[in-house]
Fold these 2 entries.
Entry 1:
Amino acid sequence: MSDAIARMGLALVGLLGALGVGAVFSAPRITYGQDADQILRKVDAVLQPESFESYRKLINVEPSGAKREFLLFTLKKGHDKIISLFMSPASEKGRATLRLGDNMWLYIPNVGKPVRITSLQSVIGGVFNNADIMRLDYHVEYDVRKMEPKLKEYILDLKAKNATVAYDQVKMWVDKKSFVPSKIECYAATGLLIKTLYFKENKPFDDATLRPSVIETDSPLYKGYQSIMVYSRVKKRVVPDEVFTLEFLGKVETIR
Amino acid sequence: MVGQAILFALILLAAPLAAQEKAQVDLAEIEKEIAALAEKPYHVGGFFEFQPTLFGIDRDSTFARVRFYRDPPPHLFDQYALRLRLEGSYKKDIFSVFLKSDTAVRNELPGWKEETKLFEAYASVKPNTSWIFEAGKKVMKWGKGYAWNPAAFIDRPKNPEDPEEALEGATLATADYIRSFAGPVKTLTLTTALVPVYEHVNAKSGELGHVNFAAKLYLLAYDTDIDWMIFTGSSRTTRYGFDFSRNLATNLEAHGEFAVINNFALTTANERGQLSSRQSDAVSYLLGVRYLSEQETTYIVEYYRNGTGLSRAQMTDFFSYAQRSYRLFQETGDESGLVRAQRLLDGAYGRPNPGRHYLYFRASQKEPFDILYLTPALTTILNVRDGSAVVIPELSYSPMTNLELRLRAPTFVGKQRTDYGEKQNDFRIEFRIRFHFSL
């Protein structure tokens, strides 16, 4: 019964959106708990498989147009394990990052032992921070606070599950058919917009799922700067849990 | 509310226009580059470095007088240092090898000096992800402290003024067993090591002719890194350690280290240069935090209690003795006191931090004024007991990929007969250019 009411409400709000009546901030604030959560899980599944390997190019673009590029090999397993290895440039080669849930470490070959890092720091400079580079699935870190259906997309308003998450609030524009997000805004607890992510260049990877291969980001805190993340060779791969340990941070290259 | 809606709508309308001005990426080119790197089983790279340094020498300090009593150095000394660091690795199936060498050429007060060291050279066998066997020369990297690691029983001590620099490893054989779990204990790693000490192998690591044993048990439990370590054998007295590290918030990390060295022998000199040696259990510990502010300033603060260090009175006695010996040499030509003082400086008195209580503070600002890759920093190491310190302003900048520039000016502050007040230099101005390469 409650599901039926929710669906009716969903249809009504969708209709209002289609008529252009539902202005973003004046739309009725209705929560569609389970449906919205399922939509968020579908977004996660589209953005990246649950366990996979990939190569990523990170590009920091300065206002002058100058670029700084980084190439990373990344392995993710389940909902909370990510390990990344810097392959280039030469000054960063061998650096590796590990994330286990809320715990993050950085391994710098010269320094030796892995040091704990925090989600708001950035190991590469630029607009992407550690939480962006080692992002967990959104549904792991966020609850859907409200969902606003529009004609062709959903707007999801997410709230961090706890204070250890990098962004307190996230607003996500999701295509209704493909569940591919087009834009995500990340906010601090104060309501300050920290950055906006733009998802582009959808293409099929090894399992034929259409995924965004390019993520661009800019930030009012870094006016004129832009960072771009390009995904390549995304394919499902399940490795043992032992790979996601501090001992392995200096040895990621051996399993690439 | 209506105003907000209009503003938001304007932003939405403007977004596509802004996006058009954004940088474009050549996806095909990126795919090609990734394909080339992904298939490569080997790596050769490293860096070239050029570092001119201006030393402001305190000719009246104990260090300068003891080291250069025959030929007093100038007030200012300019040094030019070149360094080549080479790294290589190769992997095939479960086997891999790794090499790191360091060659440095620089002019020192007595003349030019060239030094080549093999920092690391080891082979690794990884039959599966739970077992790793390695043998050769490598750095073990134990401990959680940033500036000091009292529980790093195998590695050479770090330079706390520059703790991120690579170290020369020790020759050993290790076996790692790694397990992961679901639940509050997520990871367990047991590392065991055999550390031989012979004439040409780890010769400075204690009594020759023995193979020593070391082990470390690591747990990631309740989101906290915890290590227990032990080193035992006939080359050195047995030592035990413990460390931890935990993120208390997204921007705050806390860590600590604790170490006990059984029957640690410390040789000291009194005011008249008479030596005495005492054995006791040395207890060292370190507590530290790393904090990232909203303005993206990273603060590192560590307190270090050095159980192997010298008391304030022991250091003052040594400085008095060395200075008296210098005066005696000037008056009579008798250098025996200074020769003895030199030997002491080669031991416990000449360590970078010979005292017992130190405080480390570092503040670094990421990319101020929106200038990417620029990091100004200020570091201070304070001898808590005598109030002397080294203060290190620093500016790091990377103007282009693989090129790093660093300007530092360590300044030593302290009265006579204090730790930093008696160091050889009043200040140094260092400019380092480092260019990384990959073949």
Note: Chain A touches chain B through 80 residues (CB under 8 Å).
Entry 2:
Amino acid sequence: MRILLVEDDPMIGDAIQRALSDASYAADWVKNGLTALAAVDTHPYDMVLLDLGLPGKDGLDVLDTIRARNNPVPLLIITARDSLDDRLRGLDGGADDYLLKPFDIPELLARIRAVLRRKGGSAQSLLGNGVVTLNLLTKQASVQDQSEIALSSREFALLQALLIRPGAILSRSELEDRLYGWGNEVESNAIEFLIHALRRKLGTHVIKNVRGMGWMVSKSV
Amino acid sequence: MDGFKKRLSESVQLRLSVALSLAILLVALVASVFAFVSAFEETHEQQDDTLRQVAMLYDRQHMTLQYPQGPALKGDDEETRVIIQHLSDSPPATGTTDEALPLPFPASIADGLSTVAVAGENFRVLVHTTARGERIAVAQESDARDKDARESAWRSLLPFLILFPVLLLVVGDLVRKLFRPIGVLAAEIDQRAEQELHPIEEQHLPSEVRPFVVAINRLLARVGQSMDSQRRFVADAAHELRSPMTALALQADRLAATELSPVSRERFEPLSRGIQRGRTLIDQLLSLAAAQSASERVQTTLSVHTVYRQILEDLLPLAERKQIDIGVESTQDVQVTFNQLDLFTLVKNLVDNAIRYTPPGGRIDLSVALTADGAQLQIKDSGPGITLEEQARVFDPFYRSLGTDEAGSGLGLSIVKAIADRTGARVQLAFTDALAQQGLCVTVWLAK
């Protein structure tokens, strides 16, 4: 994996470049927009990390130029500009994600992975949050790399709904909507019953109840 | 009286009212004296004319005189009657009554008008020599004449008596009305919140006041500019601090990923926490600057439960780390019209505070209820609460309660207050358990 890092701050650039190498990415670091455009033209990068406040040519202009040349390279904006306007211009301009400074290395790496996964378009066969992993093909779950546990189709559907966005709270009615079609009579405690069953199989800490709101699985670590 | 003088020297309105009233009074006085005198004289002249007409009538129609005998005719008033007699008929001036004619006029009266005292009364007498050579006297009592003239003169004063109070009322009302825009202006400026530095409406003001208002507007603009630049400085400074802080955090992350000796690891922990604290502070400073900026914000209809959910999703890891049981109590959702970011920031800071200051194993309850004029949001925790003495001060930036070792930014409640001040929301602090004085209960009222 070869990544182009466009960042004018020497300390940040250095830290990111080293962190990328630590994570086994090959990282090229350029410090202004014009060099960045030249680099993108000459090498096929798998990913561009783009700072917006660049000397010479602004990051958003660099983004526009790259996209204007029909270059589909995955691009992640890393910036200190937090105004909604900048964010929208970045995402509408063709960036794949927008990461606000200051950020942590693990978060940057997670975002890079997510963008690559989305761009790759690979049908994901595994959903997980670091605690529980769900195999979409076999419909089996495993907790912290233990052996796989078979789930009923309703249990699978419920866990899948929660794992699509780990950290998000889903209310009872939202879960019911995702599990049962229209016209199906849903028993009032059906969701509690499924959660209880899942907890017995996977452990009580896997699915968390948020009082008055619903259920969730922890955010990916 | 001293108080009145002081007010008179200070109040333009009072001075104007008093001066105008005095002027009206003076003019009315002069005019009425003039009217009185001229009406009086006018009446006398008319009466003299009457005497002259009677004399001419007598002369022209060659009338003869016959003095009345016996009782007076009905309707003949002795006081106001006009007498006509031959001057030569005047008896010797010994009579003491003017009842019986002829009257004792002295024969020496010259032709023309004169006032003569006869039998103890003044008479206005016209002596006329007729074509036949007779001298006749036409006379009327002066008292009666004067009485008529006075009545007529007083009647001429009537318009002034009506006009004077009416004018005073009109002037008073007019002056008050003219000065009302100034009072309205003062009330409008008085009601402004500290953020409202928009210029004062000067279109409908009198041209005398307008330069003053224009000057105030210029001052407001300058104050606004300087406040803006101060806020911008805070925002810019926080913004600029982000880059070095990012670099620091990234380097620390890399250090954490390497093999560290137990001693280094132990010393690295506080360093990492310090960096985290710096990042939080910068974020909160930016948030405060944003909350204080007076820019227009889009109002949308929001579900409070949805906002609660987003905040719980954000802050649940923090609560879980302290094993705090956090949840939503209310079952009924409420819709409010508010700026989404404002409501999110406001509630998030309150919940964040609650998590920070609630000891491990504690409990936090969020709730929302519909009230007559809006929504009431409540965040209750089982922490130590905030004492009554401190409740007013905790909204000051960087204020921290004594005896807490929490590494908060000290800006959370300032941000809450800035948003509340700008949007008209009301925030109240109380104890969750009022008897034991334990736990913080924050109530926020949002207008509909």
Note: Chain A has two domains: 2-120, 126-216.
